[in-house]
Amino acid sequence: MNKTVSIIISLGLFIALGIIFMDGPESTQGAKIKNGVQYINILASGGYSPELITAKSGIPTKLIIRTNGAYDCSASLVIRSIGFQKILPQTGETEIDLGIPKSGEPLQGVCGMGMYSFQINFD
Ligand SMILES: [Cu+2]
């Protein structure tokens, strides 16, 4: 094989892998910091996942609740400490601004019936 061709192929592979790895964490659940804003991702479907998240305190934080064909009561979400109560769309993303969370003040979300819950602990 010609040296230039093999360099081009290696470069292409390298870039493709880079894109895969860069794209990877976007879809995972949990807390992630991007441009100084912390995003906490939770999936609501037959309960909440993950149910327990550890996030950072003292930085602007947004909670993203994702639903994907949710027909159960996990789509009816209540977060008492911030006065949030809403029926989430069956499919979609709901962004909830959590402001700047304080350390040692966990946030708890429950479904409308109090059956399912999740908790976010702030370090
Ligand atoms: Cu419920």
TrEMBL record:
Stretches assigned to coiled coil: none
Domain EfeO-type cupredoxin-like per the UniProt entry, residue ranges: 34-116
Pfam family, one: Cupredoxin_1
Entry keyword set: Membrane, Transmembrane, Transmembrane helix
Protein's UniProt keywords contain Transmembrane helix: yes
Transmembrane segments: 6-24
Protein name: EfeO-type cupredoxin-like domain-containing protein
